[in-house]
């Protein structure tokens, strides 16, 4: 088993600084989720300071959910500083494929920066893959097999680890692949569940050099927290789920993690 | 009775894409409210992509709560694309009258775009009406009668449906008028209750061509959700109300809606 | 004892308008906290309107948590209008010291504007003090004594009231000093607890001319609300704490305040 509890303990002890350049919808939830986990979130967007902030962080998370031109510039400046300082970068390509601007921006970030991990859903990841893989992915019915193929293609194409998350999550560097079978349907009824996952993955990568392992551990931990939270109340709705989920990130018990987690290689 | 439950079911089934260009205070709550309702929210602000996004949406919601010049430009670009594609536009003129910039921007949007529905409070709507109506509205004591007169004036002046919401809500195209008597005082103790209502109205209009009916149904449904949420706990405060309200948007029962809803024509 | 309950009652009655130019992470929580308290929050950022809005507000709160150049310009325009109109200004120097840009911006705002109150943590306040005090503060072990010395130095240096908040809060104009011993550890596990405190302090200053007293009362009230909220549930986590805390700002009983509050001069 991956050292999920050990990595979570290190995050709680060391409280790694996670620099987020993220979308305006999820900033609050992302910051609260990282605090609940035990990490130290910081948000900084100004071209005047992002390089300074990224250089002293333990991970940089860039999320293209509500892009504007100044934010793209800030991401490039922060990313180059992070690369120079050896700080890992997590890219969340929110909505890649939804508009040409998002797809092009995601590809530009992948071209100009050395990205440690891409975390997105099937559609977003497929839009960053080679054309033939993308087509096959859309046509095929064998979803998990396809997800793995798309994720591997993207990982190899961009020389990065790819985490394609959905009902089954696939984490791969193109050679080693983990799948995770955790999570709860209510995650899709709140905004920012994917965005916060990218940030949480950043915190795990900040404390563990093996990126595929760290990402798989983060995604398993996060899915267990969602499962645990969803059972804390009868007739759980999305409003209360948010609160129970933040609580679970904070105080989920190691034995619950061991019992519920489902990561396979 | 208006087909409130039927429209809500269609939203849950079809999950219409609602493009929001809204203020930074309420983005998260708006996205969560639309998800809870069953719609698909997307926020996009960049001049480079708003036309693409608005064109493929089922409704565009523009909210002037925290305007800046780039955001106004994005609203105009998105709005023109929406008009061209036949996508309905909902305008929430937050704070119209509070500063000249807000009033002028609201009027500019109404002049340059074909707006389907304006949703605001009495003061905001009055600031978009003809001068003589506005004055009378401020002086008079007959509040509901005045609200209806102001709403009708604004609807006819800008050739749009107007929803003036408050203790009694008035929805009118200048000829057909509905009033709604639902809602709860706690709505005024949380931020974004009005902004989310505008977005929810967008979701109802996205699935029903009769704009006055769709808006009245949305406003009635929303008010019932607030009433229901407010009774879920003793000593309900605004913190817990938010969560119960999101839950109610998600799982309010059809029979509760039928029992509590109060819409009159 | 300071007139804590009296000031809170005046806020609930008069509902002072608090203009916030704050960071994108905490806008929603800040607005909800001010509504729960009984104040009227407004957020406005556009250079075209901030002077108008600040002039008609009862307090202006500027927070440098997610600076960009247009926001700094807006803060200067709003601040100059506030100074001209006699509207008090609260500065929250989030992250001063974390990057040169933040430190320089905080100092620029203090130089160009007449700031009524600075509210920050020890590190932020120390970065606005004279060099010799800062050094001593970092080296010393006598934390509270140091905090008081740093706060006094900053108050005298910038001719303002300084509130340095932490385990013990110090509020001083350089001559009169209050300390507050309220609050709860969960405040550090959610984002925006400090930012909302700055805004709440603005509401108290809006209704009471004695700034040191108003700030000490606000900080004591806020700490009691946190303590009260933290005990409302077994196994309180940060998710639920947020909701209970907003509720406490709304309905905390006067007798609970009197019993728990710990302010000393």
Compact overview of the structure:
Three copies of one chain form a homotrimer. Chain A is built from twelve helices and nine strands.
What does this structure look like?
Three copies of one chain form a homotrimer. The first copy, chain A, is of the alpha/beta class. Chain A has one domain: UDP-N-acetylmuramoyl-L-alanine:D-glutamate ligase, CATH 3.40.1190.20. Helix content of chain A is 54%, strand content 14%. Chain A has a nine-stranded mixed β-sheet, with helices on both faces. In chain A, helix 2 links the parallel strand 1 and strand 2. In chain A, 64% of the residues are buried. About 2% of the residues of chain A have low confidence. Chains in contact: A-B, A-C, B-C. Chains A and C meet through helix 2, strand 2 and helix 11 of A and helix 5 and helix 11 of C.
What is the fold-level CATH name, i.e. the topology of chain A? Answer: UDP-N-acetylmuramoyl-L-alanine:D-glutamate ligase
Which residues of chain A sit in consecutive blocks of at least 5 with pLDDT less than 50? Answer: 137-142
DSSP strand content of chain A? 5-15%
The major β-sheet of chain A equals: 9 strands, mixed
- The termini of chain A sit apart by 10 Å
EC number (chains A, B, C): 2.7.1.50
Binding site for ATP (chains A, B, C): 119, 165
Binding site for substrate (chains A, B, C): 43, 192
InterPro entries (chains A, B, C): Hyethyz_kinase, Ribokinase-like
């Amino acid at each position: 088993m991956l050292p999920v509890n050990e990595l979570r303990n290190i995050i709680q002890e060391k409280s790694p600084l996670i620099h987020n350049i993220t979308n305006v919808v999820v900033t609050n939830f992302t910051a609260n989720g990282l605090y609940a986990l035990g990490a130290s979130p910081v948000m900084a967007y100004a071209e005047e300071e992002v390089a300074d902030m990224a250089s002293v962080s333990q991970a940089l998370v860039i999320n293209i959910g509500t892009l504007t031109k100044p934010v793209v510039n800030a991401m490039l400046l922060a990313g180059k500083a992070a690369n120079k300082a050896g700080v890992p970068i997590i890219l969340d390509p929110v909505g890649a494929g939804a508009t040409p601007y998002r797809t092009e921006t995601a590809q530009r970030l992948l071209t100009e920066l050395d990205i440690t991990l891409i975390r997105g859903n099937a559609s977003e990841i497929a839009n960053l893959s080679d054309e033939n893989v993308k087509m096959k992915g859309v046509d095929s019915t064998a979803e998990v097999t396809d997800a793995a193929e798309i994720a591997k293609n993207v990982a190899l194409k961009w020389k990065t680890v790819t985490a394609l998350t959905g009902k089954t999550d696939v984490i791969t560097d193109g050679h080693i692949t983990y799948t995770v079978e955790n999570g709860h349907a209510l995650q899709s009824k709140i905004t920012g569940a994917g965005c916060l996952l990218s940030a949480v993955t950043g915190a795990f990568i900040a404390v563990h050099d093996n990126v595929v392992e760290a990402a798989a551990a983060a995604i398993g931990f996060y899915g267990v927290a969602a499962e645990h939270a969803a059972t804390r109340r009868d007739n759980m709705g999305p409003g209360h789920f948010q609160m129970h989920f933040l609580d679970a990130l904070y105080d989920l018990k190691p034995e619950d993690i061991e019992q519920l987690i489902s990561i396979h290689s």
